[in-house]
Amino acid sequence: EDQVTQSPEALRLQEGESSSLNCSYTVSGLRGLFWYRQDPGKGPEFLFTLYSAGEEKEKERLKATLTKKESFLHITAPKPEDSATYLCALSGGSYIPTFGRGTSLIVHP
Amino acid sequence: EAQVTQNPRYLITVTGKKLTVTCSQNMNHEYMSWYRQDPGLGLRQIYYSMNVEATDKGDVPEGYKVSRKEKRNFPLILESPSPNQTSLYFCASSLSLTGGGEQFFGPGTRLTVL
Q: Each residue of B95-111: pLDDT tens digit?
């Protein structure tokens, strides 16, 4: 059974304080690992897809990396507008994506 | 504008009263799905559809029905809602899911069953 575990559950940062969110996973046959951002009361918004170990993708202050067991979402010099819940998901042997429970990020000015 | 729309956005109903939540996408996507999101449980897939007239169960299909008669629409039907179906529901679509694929999510429908 595919599994996704995200840590920490919640993270508070000061503006400019870089950090990383973790997504550990087990899967039989990875089709893709996804990162989404979700603002309160809204649907998740796609950020990145990673397909194989060693792959990295960047978007503004966010950088996603992938190993065979985990993915990291690195946030460099975050701003208050980066505050959101970040969801990790994967697509494996079935067509049913498995989502983690998310990391709630708050960035204080 | 490329988007997924859901209606209604908020719904309060009573146990046993049939309801339908509509979902429509304007991106010509083949793959559509329904999720429910509950505190502490995350997003769980209810049903998905690979194309017109092709639907299949997700992780939590009990108490729900879907249909896909047109490519753009994927309604979620609760024939006899119960209080444990109180949740936040999201519809999503993507070009395909083979090899992984980004999903576009709708704005959500908050359902309360009394």
A: 876 545 688 999 999 99
Distance CA A92, CA A1 (A): 9
Is the Cβ–Cβ distance between B85 and B60 less than 8 Å?
no
Separation CA B61–CA B47 (nearest Å): 6
- Is B108 close to A41, i.e. CB distance below 8 A? yes
On the question of pLDDT at A77 being above 80, the answer is yes
**A60 has a chain B CB within 8 A of its CB:** no
Neighbours of A25 (CB within 10 A): 23
Do residues A77 and A16 make contact, with C-beta atoms less than 8 angstroms apart?
yes
Contact B99 A99 (CB under 8 A): no
Residue A66, classified by CB atoms within 10 Å of its CB into exposed (0-12), middle (13-18) or buried (19+), is: buried
